[in-house]
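In response to reviewer comment 3 from the previous cycle, which asked for concrete evidence that the modeling workflow produces usable outputs, we include below a single protein chain processed end to end. The sequence was submitted unchanged, and the resulting structure tokens are shown without manual editing.
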Amino acid sequence: MQLISSAVDLLAASPSVPEAAAASGPAAFGWLLVGLPLLGAAVLLIGGRRTDDFGPVLATVLSWVSFGVGASILLQMLGQEPEARAHHLKLFSWITAGSLDLSAGLLIDQLSITFVLLVTFVGSLIHVYSLGYMEHDKDKRRFFAYLNLFVAAMLLLVLADSYLLLYVGWEGVGLASYLLIGFWNWNPPYASAANKAFIANRVGDFGLGLAIMMMFFTFGRVDYAGVFAAAGNGSETALTIIGLLLLLGACGKSAQFPLQSWLGDAMAGPTPVSALIHAATM
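The workflow returned the following structure tokens.
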């Protein structure tokens, strides 16, 4: 908890739009934040029944290690000047054609590290609780794979350096939520609750997707730095439409009116799912 408190203090001292330098030190290993829980999900899902004995523990350990990576990056930031606390880690280029360069990268700054610590710490506690809660469930391996997938997607969402990569994490969170809410899908009401959450989230996803498309056609960029730099030159109409579409996306994911009806039914999932969705991260 002291680490999260330090992260909040760090956020309060942050500049509004810091210049991000190439990641170095612990921040250069920021890809592990997403990679570790994603690896856990892949091992449990691909390994199948062969991972039944050790899979849940592996998923829990990887979630805690991800928290440890986040804590080490926070300690690095605490030793730096406020203007030097933003780190950019380029992963790969998606599309390169002429002046068009769509690359995937992570932006690790005061805001994102605060949410990294929140997601990994609370998510890891839920993993630990689930070890006992799901002990006698024959499909617990699959459950822990979905938990790891949720954590990985949420971390990608908060660490993305562009709206396009954010959208990938956004969709990953939606998929993991659907799988967790409908985990006991042999029960028709539970399966129906999962479908309801999936449909409501797709409405919000549609709004976010349109907003990203409008950003690209308006600014020619979808990375945060490019959009923020060009926003001042955008027309009032375009900016208003983009803002409303982003709001629609947020309404779907955070269960705001008129897309709030799915949240109550999300209790159909196992109790750790309710903690993860209602009180922890989303």
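The chain has two domains: 1-161, 163-282. We consider this sufficient to address the reviewer's concern, and the full set will be provided in the supplementary archive.
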